[in-house]
Every structure is written in C-alpha cells, then in structure tokens.
Amino acid sequence: MTSDKNLQKREVTTFVLPEGSVLLLPLFGPQDVHRRLLERELDVRISARGSEITVQGRPDARAFAVRVLDELCKLLRGGAPLFVKDVERSIALLREDESVRLDELHGQSILTTNDLRQITPKSQNQKAYLDAMAQSDLVFATGPAGTGKTYLAMAAAVAALKRHEVKRIVLTRPAVEAGERLGFLPGSLVEKVNPYLRPLYDALFDLVGMEQALKLTEDQVLEVAPLAFMRGRTLNASFVILDEAQNTTKEQMKMFLTRLGPSSRAVVTGDLSQVDLPGGVESGLRHALHLLSSIEAIRMIRLTPIDVVRHPLVQAIVRAYDAEEAGR
C-alpha cells in the first residue's frame, strides 16, 4: 500500500504558459537558474514539456508556486526583463500579500533615467509612497535603510520638474555634528558639509547623470544644501526633500516645514531606528509624526523590511536588528 506521504509527493498541478513555450526560457532563466531558485524557495519540483509546466509538492506549496509563476509570466508578457533579484523579490512580495499584482507595480513608471532605465515601485508600500507624493503637498516617509525613501523622492522630484510642475528642486539634510566636530574638518564650509550631502548627489547622478546634474546646479534649478541654510527662506514652486530627518530637532523640523511657499511640495524622509542626536534630544521627525498625524492633507507612509531594494542580505540584516530591538 502506498503511504499518504508518498502519494502526496506524486500529486501535481499543471500550469499552462499563456504565450506558449516562448516564455519558458526567460521564465526558467539561463541554465534554469530561476527554476532552481523557485524549487528551493517554494519547496516544490518544477518541470516543463512544451508550454505545460508541472509543479509537484504539497498542495499549499503547489498553489503558491502557480501563483508566483503566473505573476512572473505577466511581467514577461509586459516586456519586463526577468533577473534572479526579480524572482526573489516576487516571492517575498507574494508571501507578504498574495493579492499583489506585480505587473501593476512594474507598469507604474514615473521616470526614465539617463541610461534609459524605468523607475517603478517594487512593492505595494512603494506604490503607496509614489501615489502619496503625486497627491499631497507634504509627505512623510519612514522606514529602514534601503527601502527607497530618498531615491523615489528624488525620482518624483525630477519627474515633477520635467513636467514643469515645479521650477526647482531643493535637497537638504541636517549636519548632525555641525556644532561640534564638523568645525575641525579641513576645507571650506562647502567641503565640510559635502560628506553629509553626498548620498543625495549619488542618487541624483544615478537618475539624471552627472553632466545634467551639474548643469541643473549651475542654472540654480537644483540646490543641495545643509538644513541650516534653509532658515529665513521661503521656497516657492519648489520640490523640497528633507533627508535623514530623524536627526532634526523639533525646532529644525518646524523651521523646515514653515519654509514652503505657493506651488511647492515637500517630502520628509527618515529612519527612526538610526537617530544620531545627543542623548535627551527628541527627534523632530518623531515629534512631527505625532503632532501632525491628524492633518488629513499630510500623508504618512511607513516602509518596512519587505520594501528593501538593496542587496538581499540587507533585508535579512534589517529584520535581525528589528527582532533584537523588539526583544528588548
């Protein structure tokens, strides 16, 4: 008599490729690297004959594998190239929420970069973030490193500039050590604060290219400056991004938020797990999130480890630190 366990192992689900066998090679990947990844991550066996894919494993594993295969096929039918990182991210997103439509995420391109890449949301939270920036004049985005907080804000700013919705982009960050060790660094004031602003330049160069970024700076269409330089100004028709806002004081945050003039919008980003302020000083970001939470016109987006788009290890590292913090 065959045991139930052995019978279950032989149970299969058939998935028919919607475009025939033409999708099989990009779906399985070069040398079947995608197929092997799917088998390992989903605990199933996958084989193909023509346009018919057979999935073998537990009933729940088979059902989820078919869901993943279906979403990956939709991406391929939409013309998106498929890489290992895309397969890994697709599995993670669908595990988090099986109702996710990956083709809808990839179909929402907000900007074409200098090297012709399409900037699209990689998760439901990132999509909500982009929607919030399109609909609201003030958006707060919090979450761990690598979730696209700054990069997507920069992309939205460049897109708004290209559509002539704003006349300039202003990027700013607090220089936490400005009153202490910064003064001992060599060079001019600009050279002293440059290390704090470098991540903003890196994102900008990636989006529009170094030559275009320098031209925008020379034409005063783009300004990158430490937060202290914002005092006393009114920013009209501008897209303003305050990065690393967890390191602002309450006074600095109030100063920044009251700089907005007509036809301007602002995005405030930060990671509340990485506050570098001196002990006893409350984060202006944490205070603002609580104080302004009842204002409907202000959108607040919370990104999570599932939204991390850096190296896959970053997501695991973020989760490990979060677990340790929760244990305390």
CATH topology of the largest domain: Rossmann fold
Question: Class of the largest domain in CATH?
Answer: Alpha Beta
Stretches with pLDDT under 50, minimum 5 residues = 178-182
Described by the principal axes of the CA atoms, the overall outline is elongated
* Major sheet: arrangement of strands: 8-7-9-10-6-11
Order of helices and strands: HEHHEEHHHEEHEHEHHEEHEHEH
Describe this entry's structure for a reader.
The protein is α/β, with parallel strands linked by helices and 328 residues long. The chain contains 13 helices and eleven strands. It folds into two domains: 100 residues, Ribosomal Protein S8, Chain: A, domain 1 (2-Layer Sandwich); 217 residues, Rossmann fold (3-Layer(aba) Sandwich), CATH 3.40.50.300. A hairpin with a 5-residue loop joins strand 4 and strand 5. Helix 3 packs parallel to helix 5 and helix 11 crosses helix 12. The longest helix has 20 residues. It is elongated and about 70 Å long. The relative contact order is 0.12.
What distinguishing features does this structure have?
alpha/beta; Ribosomal Protein S8, Chain: A, domain 1; Rossmann fold; 2 domains; six-stranded parallel sheet; three-stranded antiparallel sheet; 13 helices; 11 strands
